[in-house]
Amino acid sequence: MAGGVWGxxxxxxxxxxxxxxxxxxxxxxxxxxxPTRPPPQGPQPQPELQPEAQxxxxxxxxxxxxxxxxxxxxxxxxxxEGAHQAPQCSWEEGALSDLALYMAACLEEAxxxxxxxxxxxxxxxxxxxGQRLEDxxxxxxxxxxxxxxxxxxxRPRRAALRVLSSLALEHARDVxxxxxxxxxxxxxxAAELWRSLSRNQRVNGQVxxxxxxxxxxxxxxxxxxxxxxxxxxxxxxxxxxxxATRGFYSHLLLALVTQLHELAQGPRSPDAHKxxxxxxxxPPHSHASCAVEALKALLTGDGGRMVVTCMEQAGGWRRLAGxxxxxxxxxxxxxxxVAHADHHLRGLFADLLPxxxxxxxxxxxxxMAFFIGLLQSWxxxxxxxxxxILERLRAWRSDPEPTVxxxxxxxxxxxxxxxxxxxxxxxxxxALLGALGEGDARLVGAALGAxxxxxxxxxxxxxxxxxxxxxxxxPLLDDxxxxxxxxxxxxxxxxxxxxxxGLRVGLRGPLRKLVLRSLVPLLLRLHDPSLDAAESSExxxxxxxxxxxxxLLEEMVTVAHYDSPxxxxxxxxxxxxxxxxxxxxxxxxxQGYLRSPQDPLRRAAAVLIGFLVHHSSPSRFSQxxxxxxxxxxxxxxxxxxxxxxxxxxxxxxxxxxxxxxQGSGQGLRLPRLRLRRARPARPPPVYPDNPFQRASFAxxxxxxxxxxx
Length: 709
What we know:
Elements: H1 2-12, H2 18-33, H3 55-66, H4 89-110, H5 115-128, H6 133-147, H7 155-170, H8 172-179, H9 188-199, H10 204-216, H11 222-236, H12 249-265, H13 287-301, H14 305-313, H15 316-320, H16 326-340, H17 345-355, H18 361-374, H19 378-381, H20 386-397, H21 402-417, H22 425-434, H23 441-455, H24 462-477, H25 482-498, H26 500-504, H27 510-524, H28 531-548, H29 553-562, H30 565-578, H31 583-592, H32 599-615, H33 623-635, H34 642-664, H35 672-678, H36 691-697
Helix pairs in contact: 1-2, 1-3, 2-4, 2-5, 3-4, 4-6, 4-7, 5-7, 6-8, 7-8, 8-10, 9-11, 10-11, 11-13, 12-13, 12-18, 13-14, 14-16, 16-18, 17-18, 18-21, 20-21, 21-22, 21-23, 22-23, 23-25, 24-25, 24-27, 25-28, 27-28, 27-31, 28-29, 29-30, 30-32, 31-32, 32-34, 33-34
InterPro entries: ARM-like, ARM-type_fold, HEAT_Maestro, Maestro-like_HEAT, Maestro_heat-like_prot
Pfam families: HEAT_Maestro (PF21047), HEAT_MROH2B_C (PF23227)
Domain Maestro-like HEAT-repeats: 97-208
């Protein structure tokens, strides 16, 4: 029957579309039911396949591929029943390729209506071969891959690509398995085939599922996962393909993010340095960039354009592909999705739970980071019991791996933000306070950030934190790590802002003691080379000024931005008047900064000592303190920085004048008021301009330093 159809098509000079394909399938199926002679024993001559211009030659080759019986050559005995001889690979690929071209010619006339008939015909032909179906599909896909680039643009090429879609409609797994090895190294023809599969709404969902399994399969070869990443990048770049991901969107998203972690931890891809021409529509330069583009396409196609924009503005994509910043990128991605794609959060949260117990480190850590980021969403966090979340985070907090402890601390901070978890805040404090003594800057920064979030709650434990931080926070104000120093100063400012009610009524509690103990570091950190630490110190000093009603806001802002000696002199004069008993403590603290490795801090410490000494009464100082100050300032006379030497000389003169005034007043029994009037006025210190302040804060507000004439 099939032969009759092919003959009629040949007589008319070409195929007749869907009718021809349907009849061809019926003929192949009918031939399968006919008794066939056993194949002959021994080698057979390989049939010669000469391409012809007329479809008849193609039809003849197709008839061979369809499984028509062959007569054994004369003189050969039949092989035993049940014996099977695999055909030669070249013969098989050639016959199947000719079959594909014939169907493409039919589809050129049939259009989209022939797709189902093509699928039926291909399945019938492949099953009629009597061999493993996977091998047959592999041969046909390779034939299409080799012949499609030579086809002309337009209807012929589109028809041939629809043949591949028809094949994937019935054999998606085998098509993906055959096409994946052709995607590495990147191939333009393979990329075109993936995009053609993506455009077909009837098969793209099946193909995406197979690619997802290839990407998630940890037991499979690494090259298969890389090829699946490339293929997903090509398919998701096609507009309208994201609709096929419904039902496994979260699985696909997590698989791509985890694959980025794998790529960041592994060696660089072999094509990382390949340069593509502007006219080349090939894949991106690296596997990581291809995965990133696939993620962008997945999010954008689903209405998450704002997520992509937020990630670009925060440098999230670069962090996501970095070896040491991947988890930070995952946290940024989760935060962006909480803000702009909350319709997927519940599905993501559910799919993350089994991954938290994965034996693969990259998958587990990526899932943990995503889980922590999603805790910022109050409705999402409510999907689990509060006690279960808290127990999990506490377990992570005690994990021997620093990265796991860091994620646990971030989770505790996010948990403190949720309105439904406020009653657990007091249970979080021991873990957060204990982390302040960690050696890893990430852990300390996470703990400081979490404590700051705790203070933002309506019923924050201000008094308890003031007591607990009294001994823990001051050392962190002078930490060598810029990020830790800035975060510690910011936490102090938040604590003062929340406790300003108690400070205004004159409570001499732990918070007032903490502020006075931190006052000197805050003033000196206005000159910190780290802009974050300097700005955080300014913000915290403003909070202290408002809470304690000092009225020094103008002076503090002037010192922070213009380094005015007159403004600093007024600040020291007020502090000496208000806290005379704390002046020796202020000087002892400042004395330690004279040995700072940073030039701006050494000079700022010398200037602060000079003004404190100038405005203080001689009766407040012991001889030992004066000797110590004079000795340390004298050691700065040999400082390599001239500005530090000049400031130390002026301050040494102030210490000498104070010591002289202290000696002249010994043995006198005059009233205090008469002593103040009788004491001769000491000349104020005069310091040269500070060169460090201007150099450090040039361009702070987006303006460059004015040039000198």
